[in-house]
């Protein structure tokens, strides 16, 4: 199984305690932990600051990485941080997903909480609405969506980025969801 994880700084493994581009070690980033837990080939295609693309970059990345069995997408947090509403982010995501030529699994970003980057409850509430929008979008498009809202993922002081333990818990819960998805999909 080859999974290409296309996401933002939470996929990249950004460590908010450092300066500019500090990153957790591979043993503390959820895509790499997912690979070690499952034995799957997992490519970490996360990038700090990435918003939902409006250009063919993801298609180039897919071609460069070779064929993937699954294109796992977890984006939208930066769109919200740049003042998009959950509905606007979901519309961008729909336009993006319909360009992808391979099987897609949409993952809702863990909801934000109040912190240094999230000074008001309204932004955290909008991140919960984003998950609801993504679930509705997945039903319309007929693609799987993994909802992380109730996973209790630990976020750093900024209210946005996963801690090291948050990455590990995220990988463990995602591995279980993906195993179930792949098993039920194969048996269907």
Describe this structure in a few short sentences.
The protein is of the alpha/beta class and 188 residues long. It is built from seven helices and five strands.
Describe this structure in words.
It is a single chain. The protein is an alpha/beta fold. It has a single domain, classed as SGNH hydrolase (Rossmann fold). Helices cover 45% and strands 12% of the residues. The chain is built from seven helices and five strands; from the N terminus they run βααβαβααβαβα. Strands 2-1-3-4-5 form a five-stranded parallel β-sheet, with helices on both faces. Strand 4, helix 6 and strand 5 (145-146) form a beta-alpha-beta unit. Helix 2 (30-38) crosses helix 7.
What's the helical proportion of residues?
Answer: 40-55%
Provide a count of the helices. Answer: 7
Task: Give the rounded overall mean pLDDT.
Answer: 93
CATH class (first level) name = Alpha Beta
Any low-confidence stretches, pLDDT <50, length ≥5?
A: none
Give the amount of beta strand, in percent: 5-15%
